[in-house]
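Q: For a teaching session next week I want to show students how multiple molecules come together into a single three-dimensional assembly. I've collected the sequence lines for a complex. Could you give me the predicted structure tokens for the whole thing so I can convert them for display?
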Amino acid sequence: MEPVVKKQQQFFNTGKTLDISFRKKQLRKLKNILKDNEAKIYEALDKDFRKPMFESYATELLVLYQEIDHLLTNIDRWAKTKKVKSSIINFPSKSYIKPQPYGVVLVIAPWNYPVQLALNPALGAIAAGNTVILKPSEHAPHTSGLLAKLINNNFDPGFLRVVEGDAETTQSLLSEPLGYIFFTGSTHVGKIIMQSAANQLTPLTLELGGKSPAIIDQSANLTLAAKRIAWGKFINAGQTCVSPDYVYVHTSVHTQLCRLIQQEIRSFYGDDPSQSDDYARIINDKHFNRLTNIIEPENVFHGGNTDPNTRYIEPTIMTQVTWDDAVMQEEIFGPILPILSFDDLDKIIATLQNKSKPLALYLFSTNNKNQKKVTRNLQFGGGCINDTVAHLGNIELPFGGIGNSGFGTYHGKTSFNTFTHPKSIMKKSNWLDISLRYPPYDGKLKWLKKLTKFL
Ligand code: NAD
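A: Of course. Below is the structure for the complete assembly, covering every listed component.
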């Protein structure tokens, strides 16, 4: 990987990416390439895990188009050098902050939104003036291959290059000197990436996963809650980092909610979801086997049918679940929804305060006090009140985790900031040089104190 990284470092050193019009041109070019190749992208996603075309447009391409447009509109303003007040101690001087790119950025992507999660961070990195090496996931091989073709045939490899491969390829990239690492994937691999980054003190963002709860109190609009939970859970066949992993519902409305989610599943995908064009498949056999092993038949309230040949898992609801069950031990990342119940919201808050901090949390409630209590007392990356997943649709909201679900944020302005080092510069004038700071200090301390007593 040495020549790949070296080539990018050399390109970065030419200063071409410091030119804002260059960055804009590349972003526009990327958007045009995506637009011209939408059909091929749908085909690759279909081959990888039968992703429905609507979802491919809405959750992959549309997100990228919006991000590109937002960056193009704001990049001039964000990239400007900003003057700040100078301090009296440095009189006479001027101070300013110069947004500077890090250099060569490595983006490591997962397979579950294989276009969007590879390119979205890359857009921010480009807007901020970096060069980008993109390592898509080997588990979505058709999409990875297509990205490599579309990008490597159209961009200077010194500026933007896709490197296909697995963990070994990623490790060899990580052993090179990089300006920034942006990783999206599992918490387990995130730790490995951070260890590699530590070797060269490379700054990084970790976008990880976790068990994101949906909490439903007695005051919730149950019909809408059921619809929005079923949508957020079963889109992409549950293979979404921010999908509601499990539901915590007040005992008084437990049965009603289970029935309503069941109804929504039928209305979305029909009586046999295996025949629906709108329902994706599991990415590979390993994940299929992992998921089928955590379905306890005696706990299945709805669904539970599977087909190993097509890697189909029916949208499944599990009830009578406790924290001791296999399904509650780790992030589900598939179309299985355990529903737990509670009587006392305060107890649930106390329980969740002792668990890993999730990437998302969803509260369904019309009670303002409960809304405040939950959003104030629980730590999580981000979330919604009375919806699921939809917070990602607002480019003004930073997206990222906390604790085990990662650190750092991106999307919109926060993407630009993530890939930018705010270089601080103080420009001193030469017409005056106050000698107070220079040794010998004899008798100077009282003057320093007098001068700075108002600080
Ligand atoms: P993963 O961690 O297995 O793989 C992610 C990337 O890391 C891949 O490109 C892979 O090739 C690479 N990789 C794997 N092992 C490696 C190693 N030992 N050394 C170096 N690189 C290695 O994740 P995945 O299965 O592709 O994605 C699923 C996970 O990602 C879930 O936990 C999900 O919650 C999380 N996720 C998070 C977000 C987010 O934005 N926070 C988005 C999507 C997925």
